[in-house]
Predict the 3D structure of the following.
Amino acid sequence: MATAFSRTLRSLRADGFGRSALALLLAALFVAGWAAWSVLARVTLYEISSNARIEVDRAIYPIQSPLLGRVVRTIFLLEYISDDALRQVIQAAQNKCEGFNNFAQWAYFGSDIIEENVREDQLKIIKYNHLIANLMIFHNCHTMTQALKELEAEGMKLTPELAAAFSPYRTHHANRFGTYELRERDLEPIDYGVTFQM
């Protein structure tokens, strides 16, 4: 049996551990270098934040992420698409804003454009237009409240659906181009605590 494996035994004796020892030495050096790098090396740390600032020579400069608005907008759009209640709230608010803007434009009947080119004058025109629009809305609300109180006193049953159908942006009763009579009269104080039996 020893004669059958004579070449194998000679090969094993001649081989030695030279190549294996070299490979083990290189692997050990690699592991030692990697361990030294992980302990001693400086690694730059990045932190994600929506607020940041840079301080240079005691001066503070705020930084804003260029992607922050896009991320917030994307999250909002995904919520808007998936939430029916949110869409209804936004649609209702948008309808109120559009109603007020149409009413204010109706109240600004002298011209369709602001002809002034001075910013302060433009802001004055817008503020005065909103003041007139709000006064008309207040008048409409007060008049509708009085009418509803009279109907309630006559025995009419008011419901939330009926009250929800009224709008303060009514225009058919207002005469923008008419003659206005100014006279002294005693006005009753406005009752701001009016309630309805619903």
The mean pLDDT is 80.
